[in-house]
Structures are given as C-alpha cells and as structure tokens.
Amino acid sequence: MPTPATPAPHPTWTFLSNHGHVLICLAEDPTMRLRDVAQRVGITERAVQNIVADLEDAGVLSHTRDGRRNRYTLHGHKPLRHPVESHRDVGALVAMVVGKKPRAQTAGG
Known about the structure:
Low-confidence stretches: 104-109
Number of strands: 2
Shape: globular
CATH superfamily: Winged helix-like DNA-binding domain superfamily/Winged helix DNA-binding domain
Number of helices: 4
Order of helices and strands: HHHEEH
Strand order of the largest sheet: 1-2
CATH class: Mainly Alpha
Strand content: 5-15%
CATH architecture: Orthogonal Bundle
Mean pLDDT: 88
C-alpha cells in the first residue's frame, strides 16, 4: 500500500501573494513591526516596506504614529483588485484567513 507523500517544508507557491501575506499580518496585529512582518512572511524588510507603500497608495492601508511605532488601519471596504475577485472586498479576504473581521477597520469598511 502506498504511503502519503511528505509535504515539502516550504511550498514552491502559495495561494496568496506577498501583498496578501503582509496585509494579513497587519490585520492580525496593527502594531506589528515591519521587521517582524518580513520574518513571518519570509521576505526582506525592504520588500515589506514596498508592499506597505503599495497598499497605502491603493487606499487599503493607512498608518498613524503610536509612540515609536506605526499603527496600521485596514480599509476593508476596498474591493480586491483582480477582476476575478473584484466582487469581494479586502475585509472579506482578511475575515476568511483570520477567521473574523479585522480589528483595525475604518468606519464604512
């Protein structure tokens, strides 16, 4: 009888992009340091900074200073960007992965 294959420790592809992974991390912990996001996602801190800038430019995230840290606010009412999923919003994606609506969501979102 064949035995099940052992899963690879690090998959070669995932269903979500790094943008999605960064978004999920900041939805789970709006005060997470970008250094910690980078470590969790498995990319460089500079890549996370670029992704956060993309998400802010798209209006999906914003940030405010909270002491020495940034606090990120997710704007969950924004639609997903690809035509295949544009009938859903960012909040729905986060809720699917995190299991609840994001903690840091603005009014109307």
